[in-house]
């Protein structure tokens, strides 16, 4: 059984391929040269070209469709992949969606809902992996928090059930290599939830410094992100996602992720420790 992985050179894609070691896997990449270190066959594939995708999917049984990173173009690009998969006689598609995509207030959910509907209408065997937030999304703010003396955001007391990228990668690898997942929708999130106040407390504990969490109104947080160089639309989007998290958009306590991977999800404190080790290494 040949498995193809889109987004193979991305952070999640690389971890999935690592978890699939020993399986019959091909990497799909817009720039195959970036996948040269993966150690598996690579095929050139561009989300915007149905013809190229169809060629790349020849002989593929199962496709892991890691959602495109191009927000705003995802739905059209995913439609191209699904169309090509149908033409290439791919048997099954496993798709990485968003936690509670059917009801999430996050703007990101719209294109995921559209893609889920496309998959439902495709006639193919499908499995939906609704991934929650990566803990690394917030751990990436640690250097700025240390520099500024505070962690900032707009989550209020919203609880975040995040997990590490490696946890989500292992779940995807498990689903594409085992049976019994057809037609299923998995809500994947970390076993334990935390607030950003809790994250700041953990950063403080591990660094021995007092790093408080400072909650900002959404517009003020967006302005702060823009001030450090983020494009205005992205800054506004990130702030809105924080606001959505304050409404519970990133919380889930079903423990479906740990059930899939057969072990507890990676604790937030471990991801913080890894991030801090990286900060020290760069110092």
UniProtKB/TrEMBL annotation:
What InterPro entries does its record include? NAD(P)-bd_dom, NAD(P)-bd_dom_sf, NmrA-type_oxidoreductase
Domain NAD(P)-binding residue range list = 7-173
In terms of SUPFAM superfamilies, this protein maps to: NAD(P)-binding Rossmann-fold domains
- Signal peptide per UniProt: none
Q: Pfam families, alphabetically?
A: NAD_binding_10
Annotated PANTHER family: NMRA-LIKE DOMAIN-CONTAINING PROTEIN, QUINONE OXIDOREDUCTASE 2
The name under which this protein is listed is NAD(P)H-binding protein
Highest classification ranks of the organism: Bacteria, Pseudomonadati, Pseudomonadota, Alphaproteobacteria, Rhodobacterales
């Amino acid at each position: 059984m040949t498995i193809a992985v889109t987004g193979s050179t991305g952070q999640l894609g690389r971890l999935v391929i690592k978890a699939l070691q020993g399986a019959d896997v091909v990497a799909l990449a817009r720039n195959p040269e970036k996948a040269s270190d993966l150690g598996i066959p690579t095929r050139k594939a561009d989300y915007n070209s149905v013809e190229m995708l169809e060629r790349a999917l020849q002989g593929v049984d199962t496709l892991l469709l890691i959602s495109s990173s191009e927000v705003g173009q995802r739905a059209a690009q995913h439609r191209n992949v699904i169309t090509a998969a149908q033409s290439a006689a791919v048997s099954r598609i496993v798709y990485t969606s968003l936690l509670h995509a059917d009801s999430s207030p996050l703007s990101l959910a719209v294109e995921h809902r559209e893609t889920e509907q496309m998959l439902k209408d495709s006639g193919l065997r499908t499995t939906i992996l609704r991934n929650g937030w990566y803990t690394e999304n917030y751990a990436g703010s640690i250097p700025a928090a240390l520099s500024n003396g505070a962690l900032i955001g707009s989550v209020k007391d919203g609880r975040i059930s995040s997990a590490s990228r490696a946890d989500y990668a292992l779940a995807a690898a498990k689903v594409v290599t085992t049976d019994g997942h057809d037609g299923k929708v998995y809500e994947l999130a970390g076993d334990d939830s935390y607030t950003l106040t809790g994250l700041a407390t953990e950063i403080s504990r591990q660094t021995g410094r007092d790093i408080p969490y400072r909650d900002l109104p959404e517009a003020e947080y967006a302005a702060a992100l823009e001030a450090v160089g983020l494009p205005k639309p992205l800054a506004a989007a990130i702030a809105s996602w924080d606001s959505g998290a304050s409404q519970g958009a990133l919380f889930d306590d079903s423990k479906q992720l740990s059930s899939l991977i057969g072990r507890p999800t990676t604790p937030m404190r471990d991801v913080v420790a890894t991030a801090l080790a990286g900060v020290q290494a760069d110092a």
